[in-house]
């Protein structure tokens, strides 16, 4: 009796059992494939230092929209843009540039941006209005990255005269200025130290290309990596534009710590002192 | 020559399209710009791979109009013409897998060793998986690992390590599953099978002329679509047929030829 039981079971609903098993098996295989597949993607995606062409949308949107067609790279008259190949350790097939070898020369008509069919390079991000109110491309609005200076290797900070980056900058005196200070070490010379300003720097990398040190002392990083973020409660009261931010603060943003509940001890005014 | 008329035409279109893309990048020709993911014809007509667009949408992206128009043009073209002519006549990976298949036949693998079997429907699972992963990871998931992309980008812009993707497909088709990539796994092929189901161009079969030599079945990379051979006359109705025309070339009885979906008597 007991021996026959399994056989009976299989005879009653063989198709149903087979169907369920097949579905289960396929789902299991799909899950296995999916895990390996997403592992490969996650591994290749971690390229935080990649520099995108001008007008690129945020990196997350960029990865979702870029179709890897390469039309921006073909449009670039300086061949500065390349598509990431497998083995470059960058998101496969997406465009990037390496400023030390091939910086962005900041063409006025920005040919790479209108070439993009998917909108990964967005014209609106590099356009402003002309006098008639029409949209006009303006490469100076590009935010490809931000130049960062290593003061320890920059020879200008050592007191040697060099303004290679300053002269190379397409936004000279806006994106890079030179700080004239006294050279305390010699006591009689001037120090002409370059300083980068994040509100004007486009991240084109012409400074990095021009830098005379063996490994560039000024180099472009993605803005997200290169910049800090100050909390909204620190307002520069002497700066009118920063003062404006006060108006945006609506709620109380006092910091609450475990000690905040206790009243402060006013010991200096106690009798003992 | 006559025996290879479609084979030769296919190789010509496949290499010509790649060459025009290559020349667009290398010499600045404007006939075809971009690559098989997104292209521009004569600087006016946008073309976009609709499966890439679909993945981008699953990833939660909003695309510019050019890309959407391009995708609609491609869908309409392949849906109207019919058959996976993208796979047979455009895709460069077809040349790789055809070579692997040729070598596999020459080495008589399938006669001497029990061949591995895979379900032809796997590609539809891979489509589902592509879309699920695209939405989970917010990127076009298949484009990330696609040997097709690695190959056409490689030819146009330089391979890098992309040749490993292509070699992997070649070895898989040679040693693992016969017609493994194009006929079982590729989600792009699966996608075109789905949209070209009702297209015009079909392979027609005439049972009265057929002498049952089964050469067409032997040569066909998607054997399941020729199920009517030996049973009844008719046209191939499956979207999985790549319209490569190999069956027509090998038929000595004139029983197989290009036909259309409306044709009742072959």
Description:
The complex is a heterodimer of chains A (273) and B (266). Helices cover 29% and strands 12% of the residues of chain A. In chain A, the strands form four sheets. A two-stranded antiparallel ribbon of chain A has the order 1-2. Chain B starts with a helix and ends in a 6-residue tail after the last strand. In chain B, the strands form two sheets. Chain B has a three-stranded antiparallel beta sheet with strand order 1-2-3. A three-stranded antiparallel beta sheet of chain B has the order 5-4-6, with no helix packed on it. Chain B has 266 residues and is mostly helical. Helix content of chain B is 54%, strand content 9%. The model of chain B has no long low-confidence stretch (mean pLDDT 86). In chain B, helix 9 packs across helix 10. Chains A and B meet through helix 2, helix 3, helix 4 and strand 1 of A and strand 2, helix 2, helix 3, helix 7 and helix 8 of B.
Distance between the amino and carboxyl termini of chain B:
25 Å
How much helix, percentage-wise, in residues of chain A?
25-40%
Record field, number of beta strands of chain A: 8
Mean pLDDT of chain A: 84
* Major sheet summary line of chain A: 2 strands, antiparallel
Biggest contact: A-B, 37 and 53 residues
Please write the string of helix (H) and strand (E) elements of chain B.
HEEEHHHHHHHHHHHEHEHE
Structure class of chain B: mainly alpha
Helix content of chain B: 40-55%
Please state how the strands of the largest beta sheet of chain A are arranged side by side.
1-2
Integer count of domains of chain B:
2
**Strand-and-helix sequence of chain A, N→C?**
HHHHEEHEEEHEEHEHH
Report the sheet-strand fraction of chain A: 5-15%
Strand order of the largest sheet of chain B: 1-2-3
Q: Kindly report how far apart the N and C termini of chain A lie.
A: 99 Å
Q: What is the name of the CATH class of the domain at 59-141 in chain A?
A: Alpha Beta
Shape of chain B: globular
What percent of residues of chain B are in strands? 5-15%
Structural class call of chain A reads alpha+beta
Q: Mean pLDDT score of chain B, rounded?
A: 86
Quaternary state of the chains: heterodimer
């Amino acid at each position: 009796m007991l021996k026959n039981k399994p056989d009976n079971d299989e005879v009653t609903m063989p198709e149903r059992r087979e169907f369920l098993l097949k579905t289960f098996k396929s789902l299991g295989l799909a899950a296995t494939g999916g895990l390996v597949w997403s592992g490969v993607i996650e591994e290749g995606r971690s390229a935080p230092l990649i520099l995108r062409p001008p007008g690129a949308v945020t990196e997350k949107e960029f990865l979702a929209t870029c179709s890897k067609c390469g039309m921006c790279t073909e449009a670039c008259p300086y061949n500065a843009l390349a598509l990431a190949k497998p083995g470059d350790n960058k998101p496969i097939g997406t465009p990037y540039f390496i400023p030390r070898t091939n910086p962005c020369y900041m063409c006025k008509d920005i040919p790479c941006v209108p070439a993009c069919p998917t909108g990964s390079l967005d014209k609106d991000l590099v356009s402003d209005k002309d006098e008639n109110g029409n949209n006009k491309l303006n490469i100076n609005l590009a935010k490809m990255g931000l130049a960062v200076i290593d003061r320890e290797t920059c020879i200008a900070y050592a007191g040697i005269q060099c303004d290679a980056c300053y002269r190379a900058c397409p936004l000279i005196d806006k994106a890079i200025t030179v700080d004239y200070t006294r050279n305390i070490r010699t006591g009689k010379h001037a120090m002409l130290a370059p300083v980068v300003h994040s509100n004007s720097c486009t991240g084109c990398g012409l400074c990095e290309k021009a830098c005379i040190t063996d490994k560039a002392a000024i180099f472009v990083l993605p803005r997200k990596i290169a910049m800090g973020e100050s909390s909204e409660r620190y307002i520069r009261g002497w700066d009118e534009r920063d003062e404006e931010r006060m108006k945006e603060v609506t709620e109380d943003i006092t910091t609450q710590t475990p000690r905040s509940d206790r009243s402060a001890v006013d010991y200096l005014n106690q009798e003992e002192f | 020559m006559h025996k290879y008329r479609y084979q030769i035409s296919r190789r010509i279109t496949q290499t010509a399209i790649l060459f025009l893309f290559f020349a667009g990048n290398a010499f600045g020709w404007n006939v075809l710009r971009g690559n098989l993911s997104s292209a521009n014809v004569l600087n006016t007509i946008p073309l976009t791979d609709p499966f890439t667009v679909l993945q981008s949408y699953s990833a939660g992206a909003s695309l510019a109009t050019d890309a959407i128009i391009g995708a609609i043009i491609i869908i309409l073209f392949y849906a109207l013409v019919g058959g996976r002519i993208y796979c047979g006549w455009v895709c460069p990976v077809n040349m790789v897998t055809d070579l692997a298949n040729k070598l596999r036949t020459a080495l008589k693998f399938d006669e001497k060793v029990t061949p591995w079997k895979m379900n032809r429907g796997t590609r539809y699972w891979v489509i589902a998986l592509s879309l699920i992963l695209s939405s989970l990871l917010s990127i076009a998931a298949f484009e990330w690992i696609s040997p097709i992309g690695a190959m056409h980008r490689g030819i146009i812009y330089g391979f890098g390590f992309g040749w490993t993707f292509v070699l992997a497909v070649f070895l898989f088709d040679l040693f693992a599953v016969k017609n493994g990539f194009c006929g079982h796994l590729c989600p792009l092929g699966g996608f075109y099978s789905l949209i070209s189901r009702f297209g015009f161009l079909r392979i027609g079969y005439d049972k009265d002329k057929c002498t049952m030599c089964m050469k067409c079945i032997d040569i066909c990379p998607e054997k399941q679509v020729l199920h009517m051979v030996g049973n009844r006359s008719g046209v191939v109705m499956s979207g999985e047929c790549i319209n490569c025309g190999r069956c027509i070339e090998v038929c000595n009885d004139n029983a197989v030829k290009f036909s259309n979906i409306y044709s009742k008597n072959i």
